[in-house]
Amino acid sequence: MSRSYRIAQMAGDGIGPEVVAEARKVVEAVASAKGFGLSWVDYPFGAEHYLKTGEILPESVLDELQSCQALLLGAIGDPRVKAGILERGILLKLRFFFDMFVNLRPAKAFPRVPLPVPLPEGREMDLLVVRENTEDFYVGLGGDGGSPVDLGLERGLYTMEGEMRVRFSTPQRSAFQVGLATEGAVRRITADACERALGRGEKRLTLATKANAMPQLYGFWEEMARDETEKRGLTFETINVDALCYHLVRTPWKWNVVLCPNMFGDIVSDLLAALSGGLGVAAGANIGAGLGMFEPVHGSAPDIARQNRANPLAAILSAALMLDCLGEKEAARSVEAAVGAFLAGARPDELPEEMGGRGTTSAVGDAVASHL
């Protein structure tokens, strides 16, 4: 075949192996239909591997992954492992090593997926949250006021050094969390969001902000993002993130591409996941200049693991994002259309369990693949 891609697969924990198997099934079906090749490299990392071996994610694997074009991830998290060990040791390690500065979270209303706030007749919901993925309050810098706060940080764009000291007039227990924005990081995520808006035929870009309360951080964001957006001929608008959440619930059809600093993007994208039908159709991508990581938002759901009950649609839609980022845009559109066709045409009992049906994980995957 003229085109071939080397894809890493990390099925992970809980329902991860089940939903990734169906996503892979669909990707292989569309690859066959569209004439490109795939080679898969499977990695065992997750809770089971950690509990058996004590190994989280070796440095040598990071080097191996550089030969892959994408990583398809199932889910990370298990109640038998202390929270944070796997998340920091696998997810954050991968994001920072490969400088995955873009987090994509589409929110689209699909046929027959129940919505908590029904759309008026003739209205559609099809948004894209573009979230900055390396800075803001998620840089992991902070501490208590009783000792200097180390501000050492390594990112793809820079290395930072420094420390913060505070002194109170009377003894106080205190805690600090540092938010960070740099011009390079804001400009590159804004440029990415602009390109995605233009690719969708949009003429404006909306920034979620809170400069009225935090002018140093988010006023800086507004300045850099406005300049970068207007260079590309798009209309730039800002809206306070609290007001945005209010309007998203009332009129989600009025919004298209929303650019968010890291923390706001985390919150807004989960709100939109609920508004567009729940985590069962919530896809996610972490991308940068190198390896991209594609994963459903829903987590590992250990209570239904290994029961063939999990909804695989979010994993399948995450695989569609993977194909799009690989440049196989027609294949990506075909997968999304196949999900829509399945949902529109399935009998009520064929729908996934969370949508009121009795469709098993494997049956839903088979049905989507059949539409390709």
From TrEMBL:
Keyword Lipoprotein appears in the UniProt entry: no
Manganese in keyword set: yes
Keywords on record: Manganese, Metal-binding, NAD, Oxidoreductase
Cofactor requirements of the protein: Mg(2+); Mn(2+)
Residue span of region Disordered: 350-372
GO MF annotation terms: magnesium ion binding; NAD binding; oxidoreductase activity, acting on the CH-OH group of donors, NAD or NADP as acceptor
Location of the Isopropylmalate dehydrogenase-like domain: 6-368
Source species, domain of life: Bacteria
Pfam families associated with the record: Iso_dh (PF00180)
PANTHER family: D-MALATE DEHYDROGENASE [DECARBOXYLATING] (PTHR43275)
Name of the molecule in the record: Isocitrate/isopropylmalate dehydrogenase family protein
Organism: Aminithiophilus ramosus
